[in-house]
């Protein structure tokens, strides 16, 4: 699990009220060109086929938790499902489900949602949003209840699943959770951005 800073995004917090965001790449002649090209094509096709072999549906326990030091939210990444069977899965891609348990802090308002989580399949160079709505019916049918939006003022524990449709299947992925830099309404207090990254391992 990695904690690091990213570009600041300003939000606003109110005591026991709400959280609202303000804002959120040779000169030598070939001896047998035809044979060389044919061999290269075969090797390339074989390599691409090996790289895009679909992952069989597999559940992996994660069990990593973290707590936002300023807001008090505690989030645990319980498990993931690699290779979830979905009609929305792109060729060469993968559907990944992430199960989280969230216990919101009690001091501030606002909400926590699936939109606070993103995934990267290129070693953290870019992160993409979840696609839970696109596969929610398939998730429900398979017994994976969707994570609903959570209001901090409601308290309690909330468990659910978030879906990501990966464009390019990879051995491992990076899951990111981010709570943006936030200003407490009615005061000059500014809470620093909180960002955590968790590795989703190979099946």
Automatic annotation (TrEMBL):
Domain of life: Bacteria
Compositionally biased residues, Low complexity: 21-39
InterPro entries membership: Immunoprotect_excell_Ig-like
Ranges of Acidic residues composition bias in the record: 40-51
Transmembrane segments: none
Keywords associated with the record: Signal
Signal peptide: 1-21
Region Disordered, annotated ranges: 21-54
Gene3D superfamilies with a match to the protein in the record: 2.60.40.1240
Protein name listed in UniProt: DUF4352 domain-containing protein
Organism annotation: Stackebrandtia endophytica
């Amino acid at each position: 699990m990695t904690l690091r800073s990213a570009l600041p995004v300003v939000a606003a917090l109110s005591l026991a009220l709400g959280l609202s965001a303000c804002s959120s790449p040779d000169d030598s002649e070939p001896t047998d060109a035809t044979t060389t090209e044919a061999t290269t094509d075969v090797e390339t096709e074989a390599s691409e086929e090996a790289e895009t072999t679909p992952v069989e549906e597999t559940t992996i326990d994660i069990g990593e938790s973290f707590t936002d030091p300023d807001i008090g939210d505690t989030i645990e990444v319980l498990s993931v499902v690699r290779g979830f069977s979905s009609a929305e899965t792109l060729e060469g891609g993968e559907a990944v489900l992430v199960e989280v348990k969230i216990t919101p802090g009690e001091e501030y308002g606002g909400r926590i949602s699936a939109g606070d989580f993103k995934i990267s399949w290129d070693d953290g160079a870019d992160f993409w949003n979840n696609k839970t709505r696109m596969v929610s019916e398939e998730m429900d049918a398979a017994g994976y209840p969707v994570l609903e939006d959570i209001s901090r003022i409601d308290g309690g524990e909330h468990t659910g699943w978030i879906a990501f449709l990966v464009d390019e299947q990879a051995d491992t992925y990076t899951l990111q959770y981010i709570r943006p830099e936030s200003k407490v309404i009615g005061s000059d207090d500014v809470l620093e951005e909180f960002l955590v990254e968790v590795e989703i391992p190979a099946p």
